[in-house]
Amino acid sequence: MSDDFKPAPGHDLGRVLAVLRASRGLSKTDLANASGVPSSNISQYELGNQIPELKTLRRLLAAMNYTLAAIEPTERFLAQLDGLDHTVVAGPGNSPSERIDAVAADAAKAVFQWTRSCLAFLSGTWAGMNPTAEPAPTEETEEPIAPLDLGADESPPPGKPPIEAWTRLARKPLAAFSKALDGEPSGTDPRFVEWLGARSVARSGSTPDRAREDAERALAVAEQLTPKGQHPYIALALAFLGNAVRLPADFAPADELFSRSEILAAERPLPPRLEARRLDLLATLRREQRRFDEALDRLDRALSLDRERRTAGRLRLKKAKVFEERGDLETAIIELRGAAGESDAMREPRLLLCL
Questions:
Q1: CB burial readout 165-204, b (16+ within 10 A) else e
Q2: Which residues contact 218 (CB under 8 A, 6 or more apart)?
Q3: Helix (H, G, I), strand (E, B) or coil at 53
Q4: Which of 127, 128, 179, 340 has the highest local Cβ count within 10 Å?
Q5: What secondary structure letter does DSSP report for 231?
Q6: How far is Cα 65 from Cα 62, in angstroms, rounded to an integer?
């Protein structure tokens, strides 16, 4: 049996993967889109119900900008945390309500301390590494995957997404990327725009330059989808690029890109799922610009388009953040309570931590 089909190392691999994913600020959907591994599989890996094959593990780690070397020290650190006394002791209270408040306060402190320790460990351990180094291409780095997550309002294109071809194309320098699309059928697949955009968002927190390059590749693909460059996916690609260029807090270029995106989206509407994603990205920019009413408007529109409530928890958490920054704490708490009732908030550890 080859190494690529042996079980992955580590008896606590599920928790390791969950901590590494949280350290990059990725949801399971983000990681699935960036790695090509279905989110349902990622859930099973993190729960410990399944162990990924070694080549799958490598793909997950590469999508998070980590290497296999990250696993063992993270396991040791988690083992050390398990050995600590995490007993929550409430102080004396004069009523059941006060005792409940005391326990909740102690629990919140314990969660904060544990999370801070995890992130400090990860930051200190990997600060000296070059986590963004791309793995050398090999013949066995990719495997068949499930189709991309499409909403009920869309019919998936025939066949599985050609992840291997996309990965090969995306390795090409940006200057040569557009030429490489010519004569490559997989290069004019609309799902390639989504795949590159998801990778851009996944990289935005750790490698802004690469996030921007992936967004620019997504725009190049979208512009080739029709001879006149009028495909609705251009509006989505412009939003991904606007999200990438806002990272250094230079809002003018991002504003220009999102303005173009808004105009194109009005002329050539995207499917509801993708329009919700575009509005979500725009709302983040508007919040950072402190244009709170506009941010809330975009989030409300995105929620109305999310008919299957697949991202409602995350969107309501974003609304709570807008209300908090605007100083309306009571409404922020209402949104947090609403987010807690959404299924995606209950499935995603990172969303639970935010709650």
A1: bbbbbbeeeeeebbebbeebebbbbbbbbbbbbbbbbbbb
A2: 192, 193, 196, 197, 200, 236, 237, 240, 241
A3: strand
A4: 340
A5: -
A6: 5
